[in-house]
Amino acid sequence: MPADLQRYLLQPGVLDIPRMQEDGLYPSDERIRKGPIAVLECSQEIPCNPCETACKKGFIEIGSDITALPRLDPECSGCGLCLPRCPGLSIFIVDGSLPGDLASVTIPYEFLPLPEVDEVVDALDRWGERVCDARIVSIKRQYPRDLCYSIKMEIPFSQVHTVRHFRKKRTTGEGK
Amino acid sequence: MTQKRCKIAVIGAGPGGLSAAIRLAELGVEVIVLDEKPAAGGQLFKQIHKFFGSEHHMAGVRGFEIGNLLLDRCRELGVPILLDTPVWGIFPGFTIAAESEGETLTVEAEAVIAATGAGENALAFPGWTLPGVMGAGAAQTLVNFYRVRPGRRALVVGAGNVGLIVSYQLLQAGIDVAAVVEGQEQVGGYMVHASKIRRMSVPLLTRHTVVSAAGTGRVESCRVAQVDAFFAPQEGTEKEYQVDMICVAVGLSPAVELLRAMEVPMCYVGELGGHLPLHNDALMTKREGIFVAGDISGIEEASSAMEEGRLAAVSAAHYCGCVHDVHAEKEKIQIRKSLAALRSGPFGDVIMKKKQTIFGRFRNAC
Amino acid sequence: MDSDGGTLRITDHPILGPMPPAGEVTIYFNGREITAREGETVAAALAAEGISAFRTTVKRKESRGIFCAIGRCTDCAMTVNGIPNIRTCITTVEENMRVESQEGLGEWRINRNGDDTETV
């Protein structure tokens, strides 16, 4: 496998965020603190461009060579229309502007059962490890015919680059 | 015995075959599609994930939605699709011999498009024949098409796209995935597929493989171990998992038996699945009038099968004199461009190169 | 994850939605009555009952079941309505169908006229 397929990967499935930020493929911390923005965690040149057409404002650019990695204009307002459109489920919306040094991350979710708003869940990192608690803020479907849900959860700002999934808390007495 | 007749017969009602039939019908060419299964769509209906590619390639559309679109179009065009009709021979002329409702059915055609797809490879290890050890695609078919869980907890062997996607879909179906093991040093599939399951706490062990399965009457447990560059298990690295399913995702092989029986020349290309019919860039084999489309011509994906279906249709129609030279060339060029787009980028590189190798061998073969 | 109360049928699914209604078909597995869903294959109906051993091999009498589920490998072969070596993964259930575990290459249990001489 050519070396560039691994350029942004620390481990299979685990991204090297600082490197992506360096190459302009991931928003800066400063921009994240200003308000919601999409993060496109697409790190390999696969022919694929539904995200480009999903953005009504043209903030996502791939171009005529559809293997190019998507570039996001920092003017993006984090509306989330692109999130369910990614076949790789690798678009998230992050918002570091919440008071109290909190942040929110919206993830694509294609599982049952759905959580409930205000439920406190285990927030998981890209390795599937619990890093903190998260509070479910909203559960939405952007498109009537797309069954991929967008679930927003509130987390500490320090975890805004890390949390990308959640798991319901296990009640006592339940084994794996 | 029933006898039918058409201009061009299509064997296989998957994305390749249906796309070929649709294009032929659009060109006004009489076509009949035959498939051994009780339902059309090939592997599309078990694919509940969204396709990649561009809008033209149906990116963002789920596999089963594409299946429905193709079948709707076939219905619109009145394409006859004979289901539960296994083809068992293609004879010169051509006469296609099949079985329908316990009787022999023959179809006379001037050209044939073989779009029979592929089958999953097995992996031999102690316990590999225990019920519960199945192809990853088989597990996918059972959960997504038949809505049945063949077990509760699985080990997945192979981290190509099939292994990774199926792992995710097993989780969606409420089946636990104990681990995904991959014998190579790197994950072979798209990283986004690996990310999806990694963040759900599924261990993804590269340089590991399954070394044994055990159980009475069916799988109850398995052992995996780390392997070296020659896939030799390393002592002292064994781990045991309690699983009742082992989903083997170690590649597909083109389904070439019908063409072999017709002595259609084959070639061996490991990267495209092994033995496959020698063909040119118009998808004609070395037997005049026999064309191929989809996985039978090299393991790829549904998107490329659909393009190849169209290409084989135009080539076959041209061969039968149903389409003008100029029109045929124009359309073939268009479709080849579309195929090249699908095969662009580092993942598609190998496929592009190997297809060119096949076309070269076709030219040089007598 | 399993919110279906122990059944092997996926009654609700995040992408496929709730299980659509289907007629019931009665089939018999080694004499045992099984309720299958109309339109499904024999293999799927058996898997839904937790049955995974479909036949035994010729020499060592080892169990075999579903491997490819698309009619290519023949590991799922069983004797159906008296006819052996039927690929159960591509055979649709029919009312009163008799499905039997097959030992080795199986036996034809229908007479030369194609009549079924077995009774349930």
Features:
heterotrimer, A: 176 residues, mainly beta, 7-stranded antiparallel beta sheet, two-stranded antiparallel sheet, 3 helices, B: 366 residues, alpha/beta, 5-stranded parallel beta sheet, globular
Low-confidence stretches of chain C: none
User: Spatial order of the strands in the main sheet of chain C?
Assistant: 2-1-7-5-6
Number of helices of chain C: 1
> Biggest interface: chains and residue counts?
A-B, 42 and 40 residues
Q: What does this 3D model show about the protein?
A:
The complex is a heterotrimer of chains A (176), B (366) and C (120). By secondary structure, chain A is mostly beta strands. Chain A has 3 helices and 11 strands; from the N terminus they run ββααβαββββββββ. The radius of gyration of chain A is 16 Å and the shape is globular. Chain B has a 5-stranded parallel beta sheet with strand order 4-3-2-8-21, with helices on one face. A 5-stranded parallel beta sheet of chain B has the order 10-17-11-12-13. Chain B is built from 9 helices and 21 strands. The mean pLDDT of chain B is 96. With 366 residues, chain B is of the alpha/beta class. Chain C contains 1 helix and 8 strands; from the N terminus they run ββαββββββ. In chain C, the strands form 2 sheets. A 5-stranded mixed beta sheet of chain C has the order 2-1-7-5-6, covered by helices on one side. In chain C, strands 4-3-8 form a 3-stranded mixed beta sheet, with no helix packed on it. Chain C has 120 residues and is mostly beta strands. The chains are: A mainly beta (176), B alpha/beta (366), C mainly beta (120). At the A-B interface, strand 2 and helix 3 of A face helix 5 and helix 9 of B.
What is the compact description of this entry?
With 176 residues, chain A is mostly beta strands. Chain A has three helices and eleven strands.
Explain the layout of strands and helices.
The complex is a heterotrimer of chains A (176), B (366) and C (120).
Chain A: E1 9-11, E2 14-15, H1 17-22, H2 29-34, E3 37-40, H3 50-54, E4 60-61, E5 71-72, E6 91-98, E7 102-109, E8 120-124, E9 130-140, E10 149-156, E11 165-167
Antiparallel strand pairs in A: 1-2, 3-6, 4-5, 6-7, 7-10, 8-9, 8-11, 9-10
Chain B: E1 2-5, E2 8-11, H1 15-26, E3 31-34, H2 63-77, E4 81-82, E5 87-91, E6 95-100, E7 103-108, E8 111-114, E9 118-120, E10 133-135, H3 136-145, E11 153-157, H4 161-172, E12 176-182, H5 191-198, E13 204-206, E14 208-214, E15 221-226, E16 239-241, E17 245-248, E18 252-254, H6 257-261, E19 266-269, E20 274-277, E21 290-292, H7 302-319, H8 325-342, H9 345-364
Parallel strand pairs in B: 1-7, 2-3, 2-8, 3-4, 8-21, 10-17, 11-12, 11-17, 12-13
Antiparallel strand pairs in B: 5-6, 6-7, 9-18, 14-15, 15-16, 19-20
Helix pairs in contact in B: 1-2, 1-7, 3-4, 4-5, 7-8
Chain C: E1 24-29, E2 32-37, H1 42-48, E3 55-56, E4 63-64, E5 77-80, E6 83-87, E7 97-100, E8 102-103
Parallel strand pairs in C: 1-7, 3-8
Antiparallel strand pairs in C: 1-2, 3-4, 5-6, 5-7
